[in-house]
């Protein structure tokens, strides 16, 4: 989960709350929804605070991610590999397994940071 300034995209620099999702192939929407709800609650945020879900272009066809986004009423942003790698330097979680499979130490964190913008910070 990352927070960033929307700048001109939303006007007046409003905060953007982005849930980064990295999951196994075939992950169920309910599991993704529960993870997002847990992260929001950890930050003291309501579901309405969520602006979007971000994931890699490689995960773009995952039905669970798309279904979770519909239920949560937010768009899905697919982040290109180069943007993931650039944001990967700012992740806090470092998984060798994820790094070897995706090229970044934390797919969820990198996707959230990349989608939220260059001044984004992780909040959960």
Key descriptive features of the protein:
alpha/beta, Nucleotidyltransferase, domain 5, 40% helix, 5-stranded mixed beta sheet, 5 strands, 124 residues
Structure description:
- With 124 residues, this protein is an alpha/beta fold.
- The protein is 40% helix and 19% strand.
- It is built from five helices and five strands, in the order ββαβαβαααβ.
- The chain has helices at residues 29-42, 63-72, 81-88, 96-102, 107-116; strands at 2-5, 15-20, 50-56, 76-79, 121-122.
- Helix 1 (29-42) packs across helix 2 (63-72) and helix 3 crosses helix 5.
- The longest helix has 14 residues, at 29-42.
- The radius of gyration is 13 Å and the shape is globular.
- The chain starts with a strand and ends with a strand.
Globally, the shape reads globular
In CATH, the homologous superfamily goes by the name CobE/GbiG C-terminal domain
Strand order of the largest sheet: 4-3-2-1-5
Instruction: Give the termini distance in whole angstroms.
Output: 5 Å
Stretches where pLDDT falls below 50 for ≥5 residues? 6-10
Helix/strand class: alpha/beta
Note the main sheet.
5 strands, mixed
Total of domains: 1
Q: Quick gist of this model?
A:
This protein is an alpha/beta fold.
Write the layout of secondary structure elements.
Blueprint lengths: L1 E4 L9 E6 L8 H14 L7 E7 L6 H10 L3 E4 L1 H8 L7 H7 L4 H10 L4 E2 L2
Parallel strand pairs: 2-3, 3-4
Antiparallel strand pairs: 1-2, 1-5
